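Field reference: sequence -> structure
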Amino acid sequence: MAPSSPRRPLSHWFGSGCALLLLLLQQPIPVLGNLQVPGFERDGVPGAQTPEEQLVKVYEGVFTEEFLKLLESEAVPLNEAAEQLGTLKNNKRATLWLPFGKAPRCAAERAIETLRDVTFPGGEAQWTKLGIEGAKYWFQWRSGHEDVGFHFDKDEGLASNQMIMRFPKYNTLFYLTDHGAPTVFFNQTVIHNGNVRVPTVPNEGWLVYPKRNKFAIQRGDLNHGAANWMAADKVPSTGKRITFVVSFEDFRPAEPNCHYLSDEELPGAMKANLEAALRTASVSDDLEAVSPTELPVAGAASDTVFKELDAGVGLRLRMGMPDEVLGRTTYFAKWDEAAMTHFVPRLNLDDERQQTQIWDAQVPVAMVFSKGSGSAPAGEAANRVLAEAAKRVTNLFQNENASSFDPAMLFFHGDEDGASDAMEAFGIKPSVLPAVVVHMTQTDQKFKIDSSGGRKLDGPGVARWLQEVRGGAVAEMEETAQDEL
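Structure field:
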């Protein structure tokens, strides 16, 4: 959760708190078979037999029921032990660490050993070659109305203290319940220290519906989360969706965000499980790899419904889904442009997460302002213009050498109903909407284009204008009076 931020004057927010410019993607996207594998070259999931499994691989029937009961009995005491470590910087909670080579002291630590053996079928020689040093772990539970926000797993201490994005080698989810939202893994990562998503809009994904004793392994740099509206089997009113999360790391994550519990800190109730855990934690005879079922979402088929998904700060998707899905199932989906579209996020200065993103970003940001609300035809049309412009700018600069610019950009959409203060700060009158503003914090340069004089602002036109701003062919806008938010 983002820390609370004080209300700030527009002069702070627009004068020195954000940067507004273009999205420059320089990194090529490797391709494996017919599957787009985003980002830098990374080791795929061990034991992958298909291109899809290079990013996500799923098993079922990992443990015996006797061991499952031991493991779930440790969820509450383990999280209570983590809570004793207190709230950390940026309101983060501590996770726990188990270095390889340490003897297990409870069912959770014994489970990590078994899950490690499933993840790395080549055994110790394989995880040693990959440089795996240990595992970060915690239990996560959600009620029936709670989402797991879309995110990228990372070394939280390093991110908070040094603003460096470092991913685990592999992240895994072990499901202890049969109900709740699926975990959605997109074929999307981030590069340039977390500032640029690749690809800009994902077109493939895995929907792993919860099933007790199911185990999902993902390449450690993928965008993933769980939206409650996708649940096929709803969480009971008194129940929880429970997962045991384990990431296998080639560098130990920084303290205090990732902590090894000493013998004194480890709860006694967990220690008492050790003997039974050692006896029952072997891989079950029922273990099997699961091939995903194809999710029929191609195009705009008659049985496809469209819903919006918040896929993380800066990314709203309108995605096609079948009318019905089966719970406990693992799906793989490939969307085309008719069934997966990108909506630019609405500008909302009351959203603390968005404020933090903008104020902390050392990247350019671009905004388009339109008439009417975002749900009105005029607002939706402006949103499509900016989404198209963003895509064109991405494609335009993807293969260029733009080393003199920071290769990232944030896009936002505001309208005269919800962003009037921002419009006033930039001197934009409703009569000249739609308008686009660019602001470069590094040099405090501001640029603006609007619809005055009958100028038409469409996707290609906005993309060309952004290119001209980048090339220094556009004059800076004059300063305007600025009020308090």
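Note: The two ends are 23 Å apart (CA to CA).
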